[in-house]
Amino acid sequence: MSSGKSPQDLSMAEVENDVMAQVYANLSAIYDVAFGPVLQGGRRRAVATMGDTAGRRILEVGVGTGLNLSLYQAGTDVTGIDYSSEMLDRAEARVAREGLRPRLFQMDAADLRFPDDSFDIVYAPYLISVVPDPVKVLLEMRRVCRPSGRIVVLNHFRSAHPLLSRVEQWISPFTVHIGFKADVDMTALFACAGFVPDWTEKVNRPRIWTLAHCTCLPRPE
Ligand SMILES: C[S@@+](CC[C@H](N)C(=O)[O-])C[C@H]1O[C@@H](n2cnc3c(N)ncnc32)[C@H](O)[C@@H]1O
Asked: Which sequence spans correspond to the domains of the chain?
């Protein structure tokens, strides 16, 4: 499915899957220390806002080392996908260590190998900044989410402050080398994907990450 919109419209930085895969292969050994506690408040809040998830089918897109996996309520039917085999190896080790039972697959978020309407909740924690075409990823997330299901995005987006926004756009071609674009434009992203968030809130400290909840609307014919 094509997004019909160039990723350059959303960010000054360009990334390719294979380059990002190498970045995350290198980061995987230190990921939990570098990005665990500092981003965990947002992960906890995201999962808490999903409400009662027992018996519901959740797809976590960009599951990484599995830092969200222990947060789901018992009885939640969790599937996680990630492009990086090294990150998935860490997630699998966590699953074994903590006695969790998600299904984990290596997959591209822009090309999900699931049928339409497969999940009740589709959740992308800290993923949107690391993919080549974030609009395409949102459209795939919508495809695999059942109508009226929930799409949950947790991410850092470009600041609304004019000066900070300039700085983020300027540094973004460099921050991709440590695993993320600093300047993805949230308003343009959701508009291009045809999503209207039900609500957003700022999370983590400093409060520069955003949690966005969207209702999965029926796809246009
Ligand atoms: C910043 S980490 C977030 C990991 C995890 N969600 C968390 O909360 O810590 C981004 C993850 O997205 C994965 N990723 C990057 N490009 C991807 C793609 N095209 N499809 C699926 N996963 C991808 C990376 O391998 C990495 O595990």
From this structure: 7-215
7-215, superfamily in CATH? Vaccinia Virus protein VP39 (3.40.50.150)
Determine whether the shortest distance from the Cβ of 87 to ligand 1 is under 6 A.
yes
**Average pLDDT along the chain:** 95
Please, are residues 169 and 12 in contact by the beta-carbon 8 Å criterion? Answer: yes
Our answer on whether the CB atom of 109 is closer than 6 Å to any ligand 1 atom is yes
Q: Do residues 92 and 104 lie in contact, with contact meaning Cβ atoms separated by under 8 Å?
A: yes
The per-residue pLDDT for range 27-37, each reduced to its tens digit, is 999 999 999 99
Segment 146-163 mean pLDDT: 97
pLDDT value at 220 more than 90? no
**Considering only CA atoms, which of 181, 117, 182, 186 is closest in space to residue 153?**
186
Cβ of residue 119 lying under 6 Å from some atom of ligand 1: no
